[in-house]
Amino acid sequence: MKKLQPISRWLIIASALLMLSAYVVPLWQILMWAPQYPEGLEMKIWINTITGDVKIISALNHYIGMRHIEVSMFPEFQYMIYIVAFIIAFGLFTAIVNKRIVLWAYVVLIICAGIAALVDFYLWGYDYGHNLDPTAPIVVPGMSYQPPLIGTKQLLNFTAFSGPDIGGWIFIVAGTLAIGTLVLELKSRKAKT
Amino acid sequence: MFRKNKSTLALLIAGAVSLSLYNCKPQGPAEVSTGDAASKVYVAPGKYDEFYNIVSGGFNGQIGVYGIPSGRLFRIIPVFSLSPESGYGFSEETKPMLTTSHGQVPWDDLHHIALSTTKGEHDGRWIFANGNNTPRVARVSFKTFKTEEILEIPNSGGNHSSPFITENTEYLVAGTRFSVPMANKDVPISSYKENFKGSISFIKVDQQTGRMNIAFQLRTPGFNFDLSRAGKGPSHGWFFFSTYNTEQAYTLLEVNASQKDKDFIMAVNWKKAEEYVAQGKANVEKVKYAHNVYDEKTHMAKSTMEEQVLVLDVEQLKDLVYFIPCPKSPHGCDVDPSGEYIVGSGKLAAMMPVFSFSKIQAAIANKDYEGDFNGVPVIKYEAALHGEVKKPGLGPLHTEFDEKGNAYTSFFVSSEIVKWNVKTLEILDRVPTYYSIGHLSVPGGPTAKPHGKYVIAYNKITKDRYLPTGPELTQSAQLYDISGDKMKLLLDFPTTGEPHYAEAIPASLIVPNSTKIFKIEENENPYVAKGESQARVERNGNEVHVYMTAIRSHLTPDNIEGVKVGDDVYFHVTNLEQDWDVPHGFAIKGSSSAELLIMPGETQTLKWKATTTGVIPFYCTDFCSALHQEMSGYVRVSPVGSKTPLKFSTGATEEPAPGAGQ
To answer: Which domain holds residue B356?
Structure first.
């Protein structure tokens, strides 16, 4: 079994510990502007909750038949804390066992978790934007209101933006560190051979 | 291998950076340039504005008078609301103006303005306004800018589609916002379909005096009536009303009254209604409603309780009313200057239908109906349709017109004004409003001869336009130049109350007729003192009547003695000035009602109760002259049963009696 270089082990520890921030800062943000809201409305997604102008957004969205956004809508909030804890523990484990194959597993785990999070968010957004109350006051034929996955989208009078928040960016850095470490390992191995 | 991985890493970082760039806030109002707008709205000192803007005050129950293009506020006319600063509704002369069948209702929700017209054009005679809450219509004189008449509307649950007028001011209408059981019947709310009815009043206006009287009412199926406009030119003789809640829901209307794809525009042939009334086809119904008239000669209002109305049942009488399907809870129902086109603004619809009066007539002639609603024919949508304005914006509300065949529609949700051609239905231009426009006004916009030049937006939300003043922010208007192809924002100005509909009229039609003073020799108030020699104080039981005069810079009498605790003191103050812009005020310490503002030649009365002994000062509140501060006096109030004789004087001095004050 191939061992890791000391610097790699420190980088992996840094990558794992960075993810602890997920418990104290928001991961994702949705921002909205409309003529009536020049100052904007925001929704922050944390590891186990949603904060921001959720009530105002829900009150506006009910006109077009969208459901009220509630924390209980998201079973993910029940187990996300454990998933992230597992990833952090796995990172630390990787540094301790000091084996390249485990680093591979750690990198794959992070990438899979990232993709899973985006797929999960997309599926929720699709359901939230398409599954509308048919008795809503405003029904625009052919119109759905799926929020953007990443980036900006015009939804009736609102311009909506969706993207990572601080925690999300730290996650991206953590993931990049893990991937970078693996690249470093492969490079140094190659240089030796 | 290594190179490939490095480039993957670089790609990841680049991706992350570009992601953050996505977060771009849309362009805000501060970035919208207005160029040389300031010079276009500048009215130099000593110059007049070109237009009067008569603006409803919404929940303040008043009318604001502004100048256009400057946006300057000139005056607030109290209509349905008490005005302690002038004494309107408090003075004995004006108290009866606010009488209703429910007693004194000293406030209302004033939504719409209608300026009198002749041959469809502004004539500068009267301002009409509605009271949305306790159903009333008011008439304000364009000579004095005073409220001269308030007429209560019976059988109405809220007077929203009002006071729109016919082209020669023959009638103004009052359509009920809420359908209700007639004759104040006590029935279960759930019996809506069976018991609730709509009611539209046609109010005849006397062409000489402006006096209003309910000529007849139409009894309609139970819907909500929203807005209306009279036909003009070829469609003169017809009236159009928008309706919503044709679902006939009585709870959670937000959802339950938004279910049908189409509600109705109701077309009324009011000439036919006149025929039916003349033929005796109307039922006489017993009702109770107040009719309050202010007399310019006596400077006094009189309230009369009226007791009956004539009612035409549109479900029984043929050829009187037709329904035209109109998408999604129409709000505005606006007739273009030619009288041919009727614009329905389905406030929840994604397009705007424009109906054709000639097609409606053809459809009626050919009985091109899709069915009936409670016996009233429903014309086929396509048969009445001129065409649809496609994808105009979100939340269309109201449409005004210019003199060039263009329409201007307000969009509440997308917060913009959209300019389109009435004939071709082509969208020509759109401008944002800040924010959430409700009504809009083009000078002469609802008439047969619009003056054009400007469109004024009346907005509901202003949060980043003006300095914050706590949770409650000012409402605002915005002025746009429409003389060119593109609309240009010129000015923001704050408004009082919440502006709903407004009209603008050339100042040249108003200024020459504006009253400067009331002639003292024509003052027929029973309590007038037409000179200081007539000033006096009289006791009548517990009532003390002070016939007082005001002229720069003294009140006569200014020393009054012999008033006793518990007396009701009536100060009948006549302003003897016969000079423009010299009102006097009258205020007394402890007045539990208001003060008075008395115009030159006018008499107004303040009732004041003497509650404690002592010497009470009174004074003029309108800074009238260099010696305004000296314009004051005293009332001496003595205990009940005291022997202080009734005395009054001005300018008389006497030695104090021995022992006085000990």
So the answer is: 50-513
Q: How far apart are CA A135 and CA A153, in angstroms?
A: 25
Contact B414 A157 (CB under 8 A): yes
B430: left (phi over 0), alpha (psi -120 to 50) or beta: beta
* Cβ atoms < 10 Å from Cβ of B9: 13
Angle, nearest 10°, between helix axes A6-18 and A166-192? 170
For residue A84, which of A162, A155, A24 has the smallest C-alpha distance? A24
- Residue B289 and residue B99 in contact, taking contact as beta carbons nearer than 8 Å: no
Give CA–CA dist B527/B540, Å, rounded: 14
Mean predicted lDDT score pLDDT of chain B: 93
- How many percent of chain B have pLDDT more than 70? 94
- Chain A residues within an 8 Å CB radius of B16: 169, 172, 176
Q: How far is it, in rounded angstroms, from Cα B227 to Cα B241?
A: 6
Task: Say yes or no for a CB contact (<8 Å) between B9 and A138.
Answer: no
| Comparison of pLDDT for B660 and B637, the residue scoring more | B637
- Give the global pTM: 0.90
Tell me if A136 and B258 make a contact (CB, 8 A cut-off). Answer: yes
* Cα-based distances in Å from B206 to B212, B290, B436: 6, 18, 39
Verify that B211 and B231 share a domain, yes or no: yes
Residues of B in contact with A34 (CB under 8 A): 415
DSSP B220-284: EES-EEEEEEE--GGGTTEEEEEEE-TT---S-HHHHTS-SSEEEEEEEEHHHHHHHHHTT-SEE
CATH number, domain of B175, equals: 2.130.10.10
In a domain, B662, yes or no: no
Q: Computed over its alpha carbons, how large is the radius of gyration of chain A?
A: 20
Contacts of B215 (CB under 8 A, 6+ apart): B171, B202, B203, B204, B274, B277, B310
Residue B124 DSSP label: E
Contact B392, B348 (CB under 8 A): no
Q: Evaluate whether residue A24 is within a structural domain.
A: yes
Going from the C-alpha of B496 to that of each of A183, B56, B74, B110, B139, the distances in angstroms are: 68, 9, 11, 12, 20
DSSP assignment of B5-73: HHHHHHHHHHHHHHHHHH--PPP-GGGS--TTHHHHH---TTPPPSEEEEEE-BTT-EEEEEEETT--E
Chain A residues inside the 8 Å CB shell of B436:
35-36
CA B378 to chain CA mean position, Å: 32
The shortest CB-CB distance from B26 to any of A33, A36, A179 is to A33
CA distances (Å), B560 to each of B468, B571, B616, B621, B628, in order? Answer: 48, 11, 10, 19, 20
Q: Which of B9, B22, B255 sits opposite A183 (nearest CB)?
A: B9
Residue A28 lies in a domain: yes
Q: Number of structural domains, chain B?
A: 2
ipTM of the complex: 0.76
A38, A137, A180 member nearest B9 (Cβ)? A180
Question: Is A179–B1 a contact, with Cβ atoms under 8 angstroms apart?
Answer: no
Of B493, B513, B533, the residue that ends a domain is B513
pLDDT of residue B183: 85
Answer whether B218's CB lies under 8 Å from B314's CB: yes
Q: What angle do CA B273, B160, B332 make, to 5 degrees?
A: 85
Domain count, chain A: 1
Give how far the C-alpha of residue B168 lies from the chain's centroid of Cα atoms, to the nearest Å: 20
Q: Cβ contacts of residue B374 below 8 Å, gap of 6+? A: B221, B315
Task: Give whichever of A146-150, B571-575, B652-656 has the largest mean pLDDT.
Answer: B571-575
**Residue B163 CB coordination number (10 Å):** 29
Question: Would you say B605 and B573 are in contact if contact means Cβ atoms under 8 Å apart?
Answer: yes
For residues B65 and B145, give the distance between their C-alpha atoms in angstroms, rounded to a whole number. Answer: 9
Neighbouring C-beta atoms of residue B7, cutoff 10 Å: 10
Residues 6+ apart with CB under 8 A from B197: B155, B179, B180, B181, B182, B219, B220, B221, B222
- Residue ending a domain, among B513, B545, B561, is B513
